[in-house]
Specification:
The protein has about 475 residues and is an alpha+beta fold. Helices cover about 30% and strands about 20% of the residues. Strands 8-9-10-1-11-18-12 form a seven-stranded mixed beta sheet, with helices on both faces. The chain has a five-stranded mixed beta sheet with strand order 15-14-16-13-17, with helices on both faces. Strands 4-5-7-6 form a four-stranded antiparallel beta sheet, covered by helices on one side. β2 and β3 form a beta hairpin.
């Protein structure tokens, strides 16, 4: 894809013509949750990556004005748009080479994906080249991840279209330009963080927020109660909602026990309990082909239960003496409903589930240190690369360890053709699911409340909604 600077100017003119004076308005946004979403939205508005995403999840120019693949996908050429650092010096391709090399040494998913790029160089001040022997169809998509923002060696990142200022949990994004641009339509955006879904929903009905965005499943019931008249928007981003195993010792250190638990979950019953068509049963850890005929996921539920009981008995567990497992949930009745259904299915294996609630920090700590056996993981990725959902399962990230599956994943990422890479990722996913470190349950569900008159909010598989691309009519 390539979009020239004149095309961007024309696009800006069309947008301004279509929304009139609404482009200079102000937006009030509330984020429900205590995870990274609020920071990611602020970063997306106040920093710049080589490639960015629009309100539909599609890739659009960022620091790069255009790009093209050469040599059957092994070379990516990007042209850097004219821009200046706040101090007045030109932004060059050499600056971005240094930025990418610094980012590549950090332990992040995007860094792991970018690590497949063997060479990053700047042939000229305006041209950047990435070469790789491992062919990935998603290399360009990874460059849009917020953690790959353009940064100086020392000092702040290259500024985006908004300047951010935070005080007492409220972040104000102020447009840097006097006039609106496609990625900076409102003159000012106020972003408030909340951990009380009911209060956020009530504030929406009082018109205190133009948009309320749920970071995960928590708050769905409160949103449904006030989201009449089309205000409630639902989407299913790429990802997995499931229970991650927190350690390598204890009963879940046995891969057969983990497999038995995965087999005994009636995922269709989970989805039916919510009654939302978008929420679907999920038996895979990443997108890919359907399980092979010999895979346990190809068996009917009754046969799965029989095999699960056999595995538990072989592991030495007596159904008459319940195996107690502890699960850490996010706050919210939504998660408890799922846990109740899972617990009912596990009773037939002689497993008793005890649940507790904890915030994001507590759940992150539990994944590495316990004392809980399982922790809810609600993971999604804007990048359509299946590796984005498999990389967090590696032994180095804590939880149950599947070293053989890790090796298959590494081999897939080193593949030299798209077909061999796809086959390798499918083999790695199947290997993880033979003793899953994460028990997949459902497709993730994201909810938002969008006021009448707000334009630019489009459900998309990337789950991306840049705040600067939203507009609100003055009548709201």
């Amino acid at each position: 894809m390539a979009i020239s600077s004149p095309a961007r100017v024309m696009l800006a003119a069309l947008l301004l013509a279509s929304c009139g004076g609404a482009a200079d308005n102000r937006m009030a946004v509330t984020i429900v949750g205590d995870g990274p979403l609020a920071d990611e939205l602020v970063s997306g508005a106040s920093t710049v990556t080589l490639v960015m995403r629009d309100g539909t999840g599609a890739l659009v120019p960022g620091a790069a004005s255009s790009w093209r693949f050469l040599d059957e996908g092994s070379s990516l050429i990007l042209r850097i748009r004219p821009a200046r650092w706040p101090q007045g010096r030109d932004l060059t391709a050499a600056d971005i080479v240094a930025s990418l090399r610094r980012t590549a040494v950090r332990p992040t998913l995007a860094a792991a994906a970018l690590g497949r790029a063997d060479a990053v160089r700047a042939p000229t001040a305006r041209v950047l080249e990435l070469r790789t022997e491992a062919i990935s169809p998603w290399l360009l998509d990874w460059l849009a991840e917020p953690e790959l923002m353009v940064m100086r060696r020392r000092g702040p990142a290259f500024p985006g279209p908004y300047a951010a200022e935070s005080l007492d949990g409220v972040t104000t994004l102020t447009r840097s330009s006097d006039s609106a641009l496609p990625d900076a339509l409102p003159a000012q955006i106020t972003l408030v963080r909340s951990t009380d879904p009911a209060a956020a929903a009530a504030g929406f009905t009082r018109r205190e927020s133009d948009v309320v965005i749920g970071e995960g499943l928590t708050g769905l019931f409160a949103a449904r109660s006030v989201g009449q008249g089309g205000a409630l928007r639902l989407e299913t981003p790429r990802g997995v909602y499931g229970y991650a195993v927190t350690g390598r010792r204890g009963p879940l250190g046995n891969g057969d026990v983990r497999l038995a638990l995965a087999m005994a979950i009636d995922r269709a019953a989970l989805a039916d309990r919510f009654g939302i068509a978008l929420m679907q049963p999920l038996e895979q850890l990443a997108p890919g082909p359907a399980p092979a005929a010999g895979d346990w996921r190809a068996l009917p539920m009754a046969q799965r239960l029989d095999r699960a009981r056999t595995l538990m008995a072989a592991a030495g567990h007596d159904p008459a003496r319940p195996l107690i497992l502890r699960l850490l949930l996010p706050p919210g009745l939504e998660h408890r409903q799922i846990a109740e259904t899972v617990a009912a299915g596990w009773e037939g294996l002689g497993v008793r589930l005890i649940v507790a609630q904890g915030d994001t920090k507590a759940r992150t700590q539990a994944l590495r240190r316990g004392p809980h056996d399982l922790v809810v993981t609600d993971r999604s990725s804007a990048v359509a690369d299946p590796a984005a959902l498999l990389l967090p399962l590696r032994c180095q990230n804590g939880g149950a360890c599947m070293a053989g599956a890790d090796r298959l994943l590494a081999a897939a990422l080193a593949a030299t053709t798209p077909a061999s890479r796809a086959a390798g990722l499918a083999a790695a996913e199947a290997a993880y699911m033979q003793a899953p470190p994460l028990l997949p349950l459902l497709t993730p569900l994201r909810w938002s409340l969008v006021a009448r008159g707000v334009e630019g909010w489009t459900p998309n598989a990337a789950g991306v909604h840049p705040l600067g691309r939203l507009t609100r009519s003055p009548a709201r």
